[in-house]
Structure to design on (597 residues):
């Protein structure tokens, strides 16, 4: 079977999500290993213009489903389109992003196609007999497992964002673009998005952030998270603020910025833990950060056991100083 | 309204996880098992809906004998009865197969809503309930932080968390499968009278034979996705740690970040 490696390109408000390019990057490697073409599926409304970007990142074939009914994501509408296309073309591998949308969509697609799906993968490889081996964390990353779908097709996997470094192919090929008729009717959709609500302006999501400044119980209250926001803003546009479970449960921070086993599992290049002791469930959520900094006044705090750089200090003194010093360094360079 | 809550028993999030010598699973010894934290939100939401609309709350749980403890916890919180899908043949089932087993257990019930946690914190797949929705031909919404059931109980409005502080407001027809995220509510604790009453509430045991599915369709054999070797992630080592005057140690930290880690 040589029916290709497919990726589901994800867009929101007609902008491609970075994970789509990460999927193309890894998809290209897998496609070349098994000697099959790389295709992308693009769904939405007035999204055709995004095909050029998919082409530049190596898609050889692009299926475009452009229709108003696909403007907003719906689990039933998107599943129908993708599953029908996959049934017709029988790809050997089908990948999507382990994003809010992907986590909702991909299992439904897998169930309709009666195939296996590996969730939230941190590694995708082809083994000696041509199978997709998907490495995925369990117990919030306390354990890793290799998974495989030996018989059913397509072999499906959801790729965790920020795991693959985006690369453009050296030569860009002209992609074949196929516009496909959308056969989704309003009656097909029993769950429909009525409204998108943006809270507190648009934020960098923790799972996509390159830098995270997190606060724990040591923050003492909600107001003090301002000093973390200031530090994050000095660290750049890709920086976000996170919180530990105790900070969230004490009401200092909203639950959607919780890092850890019952919050988000994050993978930034820099993680600054302020007033976080380092409970096991928290460490599980941030242990893959490239560089961990800990600021805590308790020299025995377990967070120091995983930190690359630790300073034993009162965070209320150290964090504003740190913001100031970093600002100086950034101005000089 | 009649509500089904799907529930799983998992290791407590404070557990240290060790791999068994064969590399095929985790070492169960020394682990404290609890109700999956996200399922607590589902149970609480079901109880709140029952308080408002009347009806019943039925717990459906697939798991070994010891999962009865988690089922009793849910009954002590206030659920009415439970179905325990318990058969050694179910072990090793992937998400899709688990969904088929749950669907089999739920099939005979009359329900208006199926609630569950958005993911189980052991395998972290976040798949079972999308698969259950597909298997039972129901609409689905996941990562839900707000749920408002319409007066006629034929639809609901849900708030769903996505990335970057964006929430989707979804109108969904009932019956539906809705998967709860932290923030949906504050789960209650089981009261002492609740715990006493729970001991007498019925738990129906369902095994492979009573479910009427063949052994080839469940467990590892019936699963499309095979899990192979388990491994531990690389250990992180403690790096540099300094104490002293805040000004000096912060300056040292910035120097490290700039020259060694090159993160700023």
């Amino acid at each position: 079977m040589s029916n290709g490696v497919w990726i589901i390109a994800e867009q929101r408000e007609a902008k491609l999500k970075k994970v789509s390019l990460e999927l193309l990057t890894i998809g290209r490697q897998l496609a070349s290993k098994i000697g099959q073409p790389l295709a992308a599926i693009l769904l939405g409304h007035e999204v055709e213009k995004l095909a050029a970007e998919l082409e530049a990142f190596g898609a050889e074939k692009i299926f475009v489903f452009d229709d108003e009914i696909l403007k907003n994501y719906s689990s039933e509408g998107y599943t129908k389109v993708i599953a029908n296309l996959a049934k017709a073309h029988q790809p050997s591998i089908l990948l999507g992003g382990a994003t809010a949308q992907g986590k909702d969509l991909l299992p439904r697609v897998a169930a309709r196609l009666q195939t296996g799906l590996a969730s939230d993968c941190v590694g995708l490889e082809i083994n000696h007999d041509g199978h997709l081996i998907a490495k995925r964390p369990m117990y919030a990353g306390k354990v890793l497992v290799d998974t495989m779908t030996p018989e059913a097709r397509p072999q499906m996997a959801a790729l965790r964002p920020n795991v693959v470094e985006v690369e453009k192919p050296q030569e860009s090929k002209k992609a074949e673009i196929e516009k496909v008729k959308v056969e989704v009717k309003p009656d097909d959709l029993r769950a429909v998005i009525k409204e998108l609500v943006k809270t507190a302006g648009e934020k960098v999501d923790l799972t996509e952030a390159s830098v995270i400044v997190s606060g724990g119980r040591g923050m003492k209250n909600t107001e003090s998270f301002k000093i973390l926001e200031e530090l994050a803003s000095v660290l750049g546009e890709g920086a976000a603020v996170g919180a530990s479970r105790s900070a969230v449960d004490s009401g200092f921070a909203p639950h959607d910025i919780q890092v850890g086993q019952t919050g988000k599992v994050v993978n930034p290049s820099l993680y600054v833990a302020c007033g976080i002791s380092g409970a096991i469930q928290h460490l599980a959520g941030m242990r893959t950060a490239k560089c961990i900094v800990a600021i805590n006044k308790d020299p025995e705090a377990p967070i120091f056991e995983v930190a690359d750089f630790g300073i034993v200090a009162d965070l209320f003194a150290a964090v504003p100083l740190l913001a100031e010093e970093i600002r100086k360094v950034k101005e000089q360079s | 309204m009649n509500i089904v809550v799907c529930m799983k028993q998992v290791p407590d999030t404070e557990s240290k996880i060790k791999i068994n010598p064969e590399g095929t699973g985790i070492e169960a010894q020394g682990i404290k098992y609890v109700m999956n934290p996200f399922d607590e939100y589902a149970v609480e939401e079901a109880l709140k809906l029952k308080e408002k609309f009347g009806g019943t709350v039925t717990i459906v749980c697939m798991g070994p004998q010891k999962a009865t403890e988690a089922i009793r916890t849910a009954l002590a919180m206030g659920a009415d009865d439970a179905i325990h899908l318990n058969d050694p043949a179910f072990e090793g089932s992937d998400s899709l197969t688990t969904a088929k087993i749950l669907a089999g257990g739920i099939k005979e019930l009359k329900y208006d809503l199926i609630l569950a946690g958005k993911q189980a914190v052991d395998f972290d797949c976040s798949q079972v309930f999308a698969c259950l929705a597909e298997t039972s031909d129901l609409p689905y919404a996941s990562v839900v932080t707000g749920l408002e059931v319409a007066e006629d109980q034929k639809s609901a409005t849900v708030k769903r968390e996505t990335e970057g502080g964006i929430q989707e407001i979804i109108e969904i027809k009932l019956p539906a499968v809705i998967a709860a995220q932290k923030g949906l509510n504050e789960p209650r604790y089981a009261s002492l009278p609740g715990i006493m009453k729970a001991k007498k509430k019925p738990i129906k045991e369902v095994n492979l034979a009573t479910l009427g599915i063949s052994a080839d369709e469940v467990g590892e054999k019936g699963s499309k996705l095979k899990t192979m070797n388990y491994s531990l992630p690389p250990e992180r080592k403690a790096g540099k740690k300094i104490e002293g005057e805040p000004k000096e140690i912060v300056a040292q930290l910035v120097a490290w970040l700039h020259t060694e880690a090159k993160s700023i």
Notes: The CA atoms of residues 3 and 263 of chain B lie 50 Å apart.
